[in-house]
Design goal:
By secondary structure, the protein is an alpha/beta fold. The chain has 23 helices and 25 strands. Helices cover about 45% and strands about 20% of the residues. The structure holds 5'-O-[(L-methionyl)-sulphamoyl]adenosine (MSP). The site of 5'-O-[(L-methionyl)-sulphamoyl]adenosine has 19 residues, from strand 1, helix 1, helix 7 and strand 12.
C-alpha cells in the first residue's frame, strides 16, 4: 500500500430505513477525516454506500408492497441526496446490488471455500431479523435478541459454515499486538473478552429467503447478509478484477468508522474472513457512540424531530456538522437536544468565530480602505499570537490522528479566543485615531487577518461551506481545500495589499425567540408521539379504504350537524351518516370523490343505518373533506 494514501469508510446503510441523525453522524465524521487527510497531502479514498440485501430489507419491501430492488432504488436516492446536502465528499458510493459487488462477494466466498474454511452443515438456532444476527439458545435463553431485545425466530436449515474457530488465536494475538486496531480502548477490551470466551463457527448461508447473493456452487443458498455487506470495503476497490491498482493502493483500509452496535461484525467476523482469504486486515476499526434525542432512545417518531434535512433547512449545514463533532467526544454516547444545539451554534459559531470575522474585516475596511496592510516590526503580543497559531496546527494534527474531533475543535477555538483577545489588547480602534500609530495599526490588522487565514484552514474540514466564504471574505484566491497544510500553514503567507470582502454574516445568530418557539414545538411533537401505540403495516391493511363518489346528500331532520349521504363505492351504493352539516351545504357535497372506510361495522344514527365512514380532517367546527387530487374511479383502493 502506498504510504501517501488513506482509505476511510462508513458502514453501508440498510435501505429499510431512511437516513437519520445517527447515519449522518458517521458519514460527517468520515467526511471530516477525508477532508483533513486530503489537505495534509494524502491521496484519499472515501467510501460510503448502502446495504440492500437480507431478510430485513426483503420483509420491509414486502410490507410496503414493493419488490426489494424497487425499495432499494427509492431509498438509496434519499441517502445520496442527504450526503450531497451535507457536503459529503465521498469518492465512491457502493451498493450491494451493484454487479461489481455481487461478483466480488462470490469471488471472495469461493476463495475462502477453496482455502478449506467453508463446510456444509445443519444450522439450528435463533435468528434476529432486525439485527440480521444468529444466536444460540444459551446466548438468548428467553429467545429475545440480546442486542435489541426483540423476539428472535427459530431457524433450522442446511447452511454453509465458516471455520471462525480456527482463527481465534490468530485474531487475539493481532488485537493484543496492535493496540490501535480496535478503538476506543473500552471497546477493544469488550472484543478481547468476547474472543477469549471462544469463537464458534459461523453460519454464512440461508436457504429460507431469496433476496441476496447466491453461493457460487450451490445457488439454493443465499450468502449471509453480513458476509455480503462486509466485502463492500474491498469490492469498491475492484478486488474482483484480481488485486488491481486501486486495491494495491488503498488496502488495507486505514479506518473503518462504525457505530458501537456493529463492532463484533467488524472486529471479529471481518478480520477472520480476511485472514482466511489471505488478505491483510484493516488498520483501525473505530466504534463510536450512539445519539439519543432529548434524553430518549431514538425511535422512528423521535428521529423525525431531528430529521437531518429539517435541521439543515432550519439552521444550515455547517452548524449541524459542527455540533455533531464538537458536542460529544467521539466514542462516547451523546444526546441531541435543541437547546444544546442552539446554545453551541450561538456561542461558538455566531459569537466567537462569526464576530471575529465581522469585527476584524470591518476594521480593515474602515481603517485601511479594505486592503490588507503590510506588517511592520513585531511588538508586544505579536509573537505569542503567531506561536499560538503554529502550535495549534501541531495540536490539531495529533488530535485528528486520535479521531478526537471534539478536542481538535476545542484547540482551534482556543486560537480563535486568542485572536479575539489579541484585538482587545492591541485596540486597533485607538491606534486608528493617531496618525503616528498607522504602522502599528497595519501590523495589528495584518496579524489578525493572518491568524484568521490560519483558522480558516483549520476549520475547513469541519465546516467547508463556511470556510470557503471565510477565505473569500479575507480576499484570498482559490479555495481553502485546494491548499496543503504543510505549505499554507506557515505564518506570513497572507499577501499584503489584497482586498477583503466583508459581506454577509457567515454564522447568523439563532434568534432566542425563534429558538424558544422551536423548543416548544419539538416538545409538543414529542408529547404527541409519546406513548402512541404504533401499528404494523398488516394492522393498517385491515382497514379497507375505497374511493367513493357522493351521489346525493340531505340534512337529517332535527340534527344540526348530520348529513345523510348516498355514496357509490364502485361495487355498490351505500348510505352514510356524516357529522359535517355545520361546514358543508348538502349540494356542495354532491359529486365529490371522497375516501370511505368500507369495512367499518355499521352503526345506526338517528334511526339511519350508516354503512361506513368518510374521511375528513380538522376539529368539530372546521371540518375539511379528504378528497382525491386526481381522476380516479370509485372503488379504487386507497393504500
Ligand atoms: N448495514 C449495516 C452495516 C453494514 S457495514 C458493512 C448497518 N446498517 S444501519 O443502517 O443499521 O446502521 C448504520 C450505522 O448507523 C451503524 O454504524 C449504527 O451504529 C449507526 N447508527 C444507527 N443509529 C444510531 C444512533 N442513534 N446514533 C449513532 N449512530 C447510529 O448496521
Amino acid at each position: 500500500m502506498a504510504v501517501d494514501s488513506f482509505y476511510v469508510t462508513t458502514p453501508i446503510y440498510y435501505v429499510n430505513d431512511v437516513p437519520h441523525i445517527g447515519h449522518a453522524y458517521t458519514t460527517v465524521a468520515a467526511d471530516v477525516i477525508a477532508r483533513y487527510k486530503r489537505v495534509t497531502g494524502k491521496k484519499v479514498y472515501f467510501l460510503t454506500g448502502t446495504d440492500e440485501h437480507g431478510q430485513k430489507v426483503e420483509r420491509t419491501a414486502r410490507e410496503q408492497g414493493e419488490d426489494p430492488q424497487q425499495l432499494a432504488d427509492r431509498v438509496v436516492e434519499r441517502f445520496k441526496e442527504l450526503w450531497q446536502k451535507l457536503n459529503i465528499s465521498n469518492d465512491d458510493f457502493i451498493r450491494t446490488t451493484d454487479p461489481r459487488h455481487k461478483k466480488t462477494v462470490q469471488t471472495f466466498f469461493q476463495k475462502v471455500f477453496d482455502n478449506g474454511d467453508i463446510y456444509l452443515g445443519d444450522y439450528e438456532g435463533l435468528y434476529c431479523v432486525p439485527c440480521e444476527t444468529f444466536w444460540t439458545e444459551t446466548q438468548a435463553p428467553d429467545r429475545n435478541c440480546p442486542d435489541c431485545e426483540r423476539p428472535t425466530e427459530v431457524v433450522k436449515e442446511k447452511s454453509y459454515f465458516f471455520r471462525m474457530s480456527k482463527y481465534q488465536d490468530r485474531l487475539l494475538k493481532h488485537i493484543e499486538e496492535n493496540p490501535d486496531f480496535i478503538n476506543p480502548v473500552g471497546r477493544r477490551n469488550e472484543i478481547i473478552s468476547f474472543v477469549k470466551s471462544g469463537l464458534r463457527d459461523l453460519s454464512i448461508s440461508r436457504t429460507t429467503f431469496e433476496w441476496g447473493i447466491k453461493v457460487p456452487a450451490d445457488p439454493g443458498h443465499i450468502i449471509y447478509v453480513w458476509f455480503d455487506a462486509l466485502v463492500n470495503y474491498i469490492s469498491a476497490l475492484g478486488y474482483e478484477n484480481g488485486e488491481g491498482e486501486k486495491f494495491e493502493g488503498f488496502w488495507p483500509a486505514d479506518v473503518h468508522l462504525i457505530g458501537k452496535d456493529i463492532l463484533r461484525f467488524h472486529a471479529v467476523y471481518w478480520p477472520t474472513f480476511l485472514m482466511s482469504a489471505g488478505l491483510p486486515v484493516p488498520k483501525k476499526i473505530f466504534g463510536h457512540g450512539w445519539w439519543t434525542v432529548e434524553g430518549k432512545k431514538m425511535s422512528k417518531s423521535l428521529a423525525n424531530v431531528v430529521e437531518p434535512n429539517r435541521l439543515i433547512d432550519e439552521y444550515g449545514v455547517d452548524p449541524l456538522r459542527y455540533f455533531l463533532l464538537r458536542e460529544v467526544p467521539f466514542g462516547l454516547d451523546g444526546d441531541f437536544s435543541h437547546q444544546a444545539f442552539i446554545h453551541r451554534v450561538n456561542s461558538d459559531l455566531a459569537n466567537d468565530l462569526g464576530n471575529l470575522f465581522n469585527r476584524a474585516l470591518t476594521m480593515v475596511d474602515r481603517y485601511c480602505d479594505s486592503e490588507i496592510p503590510p506588517p511592520a516590526a513585531e511588538e508586544g503580543p505579536d509573537q505569542a499570537l503567531k506561536e499560538k497559531a503554529l502550535q495549534t496546527f501541531g495540536e490539531v494534527d495529533e488530535l485528528m490522528e486520535q479521531l478526537a474531533f471534539d478536542r481538535a475543535l476545542k484547540s482551534i477555538w482556543e486560537l480563535i479566543g486568542a485572536v479575539n483577545k489579541y484585538i482587545d489588547e492591541t485596540s486597533p480602534w485607538a491606534l486608528a485615531k493617531k496618525e503616528g500609530d498607522k504602522e502599528r495599526l497595519g501590523t495589528v490588522l495584518y496579524n489578525t487577518a493572518e491568524a484568521m487565514r490560519m483558522v480558516t484552514l483549520l476549520v475547513n474540514p469541519f465546516i467547508p461551506q463556511s470556510a470557503e466564504k471565510m477565505w473569500a471574505q479575507l480576499g484570498m484566491e482559490g479555495k481553502p481545500d485546494q491548499q496543503t497544510l504543510s505549505e499554507a500553514g506557515r505564518w506570513g503567507l497572507l499577501p499584503a495589499g489584497i482586498r477583503v470582502n466583508p459581506g454577509e454574516q457567515i454564522f447568523p445568530r439563532i434568534d432566542e425567540n425563534r429558538a424558544r418557539e422551536i423548543s416548544v414545538k419539538v416538545e409538543k411533537e414529542m408529547v404527541d408521539t409519546k406513548g402512541q401505540e404504533l401499528i404494523s403495516f398488516e394492522e393498517f391493511q385491515k382497514m379497507d379504504l375505497r374511493v367513493g363518489i357522493i351521489k346525493s346528500a340531505e340534512k337529517v331532520e332535527k340534527a344540526k350537524k348530520l348529513l345523510k349521504l348516498r355514496v357509490d363505492i364502485g361495487t355498490e351504493e351505500r348510505t352514510l351518516v356524516a357529522g359535517m352539516a355545520q361546514c358543508y351545504e348538502p349540494e356542495d357535497m354532491v359529486n365529490r370523490k371522497v375516501v370511505v372506510v368500507v369495512n367499518l361495522e355499521p352503526a345506526t344514527i338517528r334511526g339511519i343505518e350508516s354503512q361506513g365512514m368518510i374521511l375528513a380532517a380538522g376539529d368539530e367546527d372546521n371540518i375539511i373533506l379528504v378528497t382525491m387530487a386526481g381522476d380516479i374511479e370509485p372503488g379504487a383502493k386507497v393504500r
